[in-house]
Amino acid sequence: MMKNIFFFITCLFTLQSFSQKKIVVAQDGSGNFKTVQEAFNAIPVNNKKPIIIFVRNAVYKEKLHLDSSKTFVTLIGEDKFNTILTYDDHTGKVSSNGDTINTRTSRSFLIKANDFTAKNISFQNDAGFTAGQAVAVESDGDKATFFNCRFIGNQDVLFTNNEHSRQYYKNCYVEGTTDFIFGSSTVWFEQCHIHSKKNSHITAASTPKENQYGYVFNDCVLTGDSSHIYVDPSNPGNVTTAQSGVNFPNDYFVYTYKAAGTYPVTVVSSNVSFTGKDLKKSLVTKTIVLQ
After folding, report:
1. Nearest to residue 195, comparing CAs of 257, 266, 265, 134?
2. DSSP letter string, 147-181
3. Which of 16, 69, 199, 268 has the fewest C-beta atoms lying within 10 Å of its C-beta?
4. How many Å apart are CA 266 and CA 273, to the nearest integer?
């Protein structure tokens, strides 16, 4: 069951082996371009060949947009802690053209293209703890992959905003306060660190009924600043940073590390619950919880 749903993880994200074009972005002028958006603009419309954009260490304050026609782009940072793409828009802020910014338009980076890959880079919205919704990345394209990346912000940080989109995150770090992973895409988080900075909901999946899965967190670590990542021993599918028993109906936690104790996991995905023999047919699952 799961191997069919997530077959794309092992085959659909394989880049073709032919020669790749490489573009270097360096703020000091030592590369091809000084800004990331300039590099995006240089990609041909309706691109079909793999392009690598290597970004040297710096803080790039840019509101970025990768158009849907610019596919097969791989964005690589020199160092995930020191290569930072950031902006500070948030809901209620008035933009330079006089429009009031909302959740959708607050994003620091909008990815519309399919077959996008990012490695070793930080995506950030630094609007502030009390700014309200402030998206760091809105990822809309299909077959998006992120490796060893950081997503930094507060409320509504990572927006996976396309019900037809399949996305994969491995060895990534995502932090925020409320609903900081949200949207309608099918997403697999593998060996990621999810860090909550507030007693509030971690995810807000809006998986449509026709999609079997929403968010899958496999072998991930959940941590929190202010209180306890909480699993109700009587219903381990309930995961929240406040002890309120809030359920995550579209999320699936497998081999996930949190708080203290060890419980069998209850698998809860969009509109479907799997327990007992149904679960054993597809996976051997347990939640190993660490202090």
Report:
1. 257
2. ES-EEE-SBS-EEE--TT-EEEEES-EEEESSS-E
3. 16
4. 8
Kindly name the residue from 156, 219, 225, 278 that is annotated as catalytic. Answer: 156
Interval 5-26: pLDDT, tens = 444 454 444 443 345 789 999 9
d(CA 59, CA 57): 7
Dihedral pair phi/psi, residue 248, rounded to 5°? -110, 85
Which domains can be identified in the chain, with CATH numbers?
2-13+58-68+80-289 (2.160.20.10)
Token look-up 């940072």 returns: 77
Nearest CA to 108 out of 97, 129, 122, 98 is that of 122
**Which pLDDT tens digit goes with each residue over 89-108?**
999 998 888 889 899 899 99
pLDDT, tens digit (0-9, with 9 covering 90-100), for 16-63: 334 578 999 999 999 999 999 999 999 999 999 999 999 999 999 999
Q: Which of 79, 179, 225, 232 is catalytic?
A: 179
Please count the residues of the chain: 291
Q: Cβ(266)–Cβ(251) under 8 Å? A: no
Distance CA 132, CA 153 (A): 10
Query: pLDDT tens digits, residue range 104-131?
Result: 899 999 999 999 999 999 999 999 888 8
pLDDT of residue 267 exceeding 80, the answer is no
89 flagged as catalytic: no
156 is catalytic: yes
Of 231, 281, 240, whose CA–CA distance to 261 is shortest? 231
pTM for the full model?
0.78
